[in-house]
Amino acid sequence: MKEVRLAILFSGNGSNLENIYKNMNDKNFDDFLVKIPLAISSRKDAYGIERCKNLGLKCEIIASKEHKVDYDKKLISILESNNINLVILAGFMRILGKEFCSKFIALNIHPSILPLFKGANALKESYQSDMKIAGASVHYVSDELDSGELIEQDIIYKIEGESFSDFESRIHALEHKIYPKAILKALCKL
Ligand code: GAR
Is 110 one of the annotated active-site residues of the chain? Predict the structure, then answer.
């Protein structure tokens, strides 16, 4: 049995964080035992911090406005001191640089069918587009925004007249389904 240590990085609500923690922490998957000893928030007012408290998950806050390189150095140092093998970005709204990407394998979830609708307004743009489908994607992190090899994608069909908030809830439900699957695929490649 190989133990793998995951850290989850977030900036806001933290629903993916909670879902991954509840479904994967301290659980066996084939040859792996998944441990999630650490979360990191880039915002000190993120609701996800409250979720971490309720889950009993240690949460560090690295909220500095520092230059990307210095920010990444802090991140790398915390991840290394916690012996993290795989980094999970779950609504983490910062772009990570080359040094980070050379040291860690990281996954990201994005609320669109990539490569469509990259960036921070993906959900709104996808909702407002005239496409009949929308979706979510999990990909390896590279130092380019919402790029990197795709691991898992899934779609929903749009419903005429659906409110943005109902659409958002369905996308979140889809994300909660595909992110654990994508993590298991990535574990097999570690
Ligand atoms: C998710 O919808 C995720 O796809 C998105 O942030 C949300 C976080 O939700 N990420 C991005 O847009 C990354 N470019 P959560 O905090 O409830 O997990």
Answer: yes
